[in-house]
Every structure is written in structure tokens, then in C-alpha cells.
Design brief:
Elements: H1 2-9, E1 14-16, E2 26-31, E3 38-43, H2 45-50, E4 56-57, E5 61-63, E6 66-73, E7 85-93, E8 103-114, E9 119-125, E10 131-134, E11 139-147, H3 148-152, E12 163-173, E13 179-186, E14 192-197, E15 208-209, E16 213-215, E17 218-225, E18 236-243, H4 246-249, E19 252-260, E20 269-277, E21 283-291, H5 292-295, E22 303-304, E23 307-323
Domain MATH: 35-170, 190-314
InterPro entries: MATH/TRAF_dom (IPR002083), TRAF-like (IPR008974)
Protein name: MATH domain-containing protein
């Protein structure tokens, strides 16, 4: 309907009560979901309108740990020279125990039900703007919430059988003080560790691990499988890097280099990897790091005096600091 199209294009902003500043645009849309925090139903609205009630305050309702009221101006907010629209606003109540100086940042929506559409007209400040309540501004809302002409015409669906329904959603934005800072550290201090695996030929276990060492604030260990593991079993040496304490200290990103040293010609075997470690994924590496035939070839110098030398270099690691 043309009339309805005209009314939906009228845009006036959330007004600060008692402030005659210039209004900006607001957002208007329809939705089926009912308001989350409060519904205010009026029966026999015409009788209320005839009483010339200037302002009606609803009962208190709670949201975000604070108490609120809906304020309806059936004939418009005359203090702001509104006489051809319903004005609807949100009032924070019971502030007597608030500190002398206080403020609340709030995102709120006000509603009126359309009986024909079966949906709620939703009115809120546009562009995601946040409303700020404080001691000198305890009521905010919309001067021109809905024109009286549109409201009273039952063909538009807002006032049907002399009954109407308003609503509110109020979301208080409160910083909890919790957060985290993620830093990606390139080449942290003391980022290198060497593990000399002596008596290599006598190892009978499927896997052996190095001593635990510390790089950054995290504890690490190298783990190798002399006869291979998974896809490298019986054909390759498997090598991986473990990290500890993820359950306590949180996830960890690491970019690293693993090395098997050639002790004769310095033709080392090395591979780089990168991984986000966690409490459930604390061990990562290569099932086929190098072929066993190359490892056991004495001319290639990987095992000298029955000693294998393994190195790890941490190239990048994350540091997460939580704050409260």
C-alpha cells in the first residue's frame, strides 16, 4: 500500500529526552521473532487516548543486570513539540544506588506488532550506533515512532480491535575486563636445541624422546622412531616435535626446523614445519623424515661413534597473554 510505503520511509533518530539536538536516521524493519525482554499490551487503546494521558510508564523489567521501563506518549511527546506521532522510549529506572557519575552503553530496539503481517515493526538507531545512558540522560527513544494516522488506521494492522502490542530488547554493553593478546615472535631467544642420541644401535624401544627443554615460556621435547612410524614404518626414520602444557597455557603456533646432522660432510637433512599445537594435538612431525638406508649408510655420516645428532630451531612461535 502506498500509505504504508510512505510511513516506512519516515526516519527519525533515537532522541535524548530534554535535548533538542538534530535527529539522525534510524533503521526500520519487520521481523517475526517477538521481542526478547519485554512486551507491553494495551487493550481499549482509544479509551487511553481519550484520557489525554501525556505519558504512560510500563512496569519495570530487567535486562543486563539493570531495570528498565517502556515510556509511551500516546499523543506524542508534547515537550518536544510532537503531536502527530506516537512517541516511544526506553527509561532506565531505579538508579538511586548508582554512583554519582555513571554511564551505560546500550544497544536497544523498540517494537510494535503488526496484526496483519504477523510481524513486529522493529525500530532502532541506524548504522549500529550505541546509545549512552547517564545521569543527565536516563531516557532515550523515538519521537516519531509511528504516525497517529497510520497507527489508528486498522488497515495498516498496528491497532486492531482497539488492541496494540509494544516491545523492547535491551542489550547492555559491559566490558568484562577479560581478553588476550596474541604475539607472533620471530626467532625467540635461545630458540635452538641439540639432542645427541648416543648408543643409537642399542635402542630397542619403538620411540625415544629427548629431555624436556624450554624455548620461550613453553616446554618441548623431540621424539624419534628409529624404525619409523605410521607410513614410514620399517623404511624411514620418523621425527617429531612435542609441546607440553597446552591444557594449562593454551594453544601454540610454532614454525620450526628439524635437522639430522651429517657429521662428516655437513650435508644435513632438514625439514621445516608449522603447526598449531593444542591439548589434543601436542605432537607433530614427519613419519618419513629420512630413509633408513641413508641413515645407516656410514659414508653419509649421520651416525658416528653410534651417535645421532638431532636439532630443532624454533623460527616463529606464538605468545598468548591473557588479561583481566
Amino acid at each position: 500500500m502506498k500509505e504504508e510505503e510512505n510511513f516506512t520511509m519516515k526516519r527519525k533518530s533515537c532522541f535524548p529526552v530534554g535535548n533538542n539536538g538534530i535527529d539522525d536516521d534510524v533503521s526500520r524493519s519487520f521481523r517475526k521473532v517477538q521481542p526478547a525482554h519485554y512486551i507491553f499490551k494495551i487493550e481499549s487503546f482509544s479509551t487511553l487516548w481519550e484520557t489525554n494521558t501525556e505519558k504512560y510508564e510500563s512496569d519495570e523489567f530487567e535486562s543486563g543486570g539493570y531495570k528498565w521501563k517502556l515510556c509511551l506518549y500516546p499523543n506524542g511527546n508534547t515537550k518536544r513539540n510532537v503531536n502527530d506521532h506516537i512517541s516511544l522510549s526506553l527509561l532506565i529506572s531505579d538508579t538511586k544506588d548508582f554512583p554519582l557519575v555513571w554511564e551505560l552503553n546500550v544497544e536497544f530496539k523498540l517494537f510494535i506488532f503488526n496484526h496483519i503481517k504477523g510481524e513486529y515493526l522493529t525500530v532502532q538507531d541506524g548504522d549500529g550506533r550505541i546509545s549512552r545512558f547517564h545521569g543527565m540522560k536516563t531516557e532515550l527513544g523515538f519521537d516519531q515512532f509511528l504516525s497517529l494516522e497510520t497507527f489508528k488506521d486498522s488497515s495498516h494492522g498496528f491497532l486492531v480491535d482497539d488492541c496494540c502490542l509494544f516491545g523492547a530488547e535491551v542489550f547492555v554493553i559491559k566490558y568484562t575486563g577479560r581478553g588476550e593478546c596474541l604475539s607472533m615472535i620471530k626467532e625467540p631467544k635461545a630458540n635452538f636445541h641439540t639432542w645427541k642420541v648416543q648408543n643409537f644401535s642399542t635402542i630397542t624401544e619403538a620411540s625415544v624422546s629427548s629431555e624436556v627443554f624450554k624455548i620461550g615460556e613453553r616446554k618441548w621435547a623431540l621424539c624419534l622412531y628409529p624404525k619409523g612410524n605410521d607410513n614410514g614404518k620399517s623404511s624411514s626414520l620418523s621425527l617429531c616435535l612435542k609441546v607440553f602444557d597446552c591444557a594449562k597455557l593454551g594453544r601454540l603456533y610454532a614454525k620450526f626446523k628439524l635437522v639430522i646432522r651429517d657429521q662428516l660432510q655437513s650435508k644435513h637433512v632438514e625439514k621445516q614445519g608449522a603447526r598449531w599445537y593444542s591439548a589434543s594435538a601436542y605432537n607433530w612431525g614427519y613419519s618419513s623424515f629420512m630413509l633408513l638406508n641413508d641413515l645407516n649408510d656410514k659414508s653419509k655420516g649421520f651416525i658416528v661413534n653410534d651417535t645421532l645428532i638431532v636439532e630443532v630451531e624454533i623460527l616463529v612461535m606464538s605468545v598468548i597473554k591473557n588479561f583481566t
